[in-house]
Amino acid sequence: MEAHTGDRLLTHGRTVGEQDRVAEIIEVLGEGGSPPYRLRNQDGHESIMAPGPDSVVQHTGCQGKER
Known about the structure:
Elements: E1 8-11, E2 21-28, E3 37-41, E4 46-49, E5 55-58
Antiparallel strand pairs: 1-2, 1-5, 2-3, 3-4
């Protein structure tokens, strides 16, 4: 998995009825775009996450740009 600042991380719900979660990647902490990532969730909460197989990076084209 490779991501850049500004990309989004989509994590699929794990159980029936659980909604997918989308978070903005605000910092890449691993080398070469690899996890872990510092995320800003839709509710404004920030966390550090090493995503599992139920997550997908959505590239936004804002690679390397500071926000």
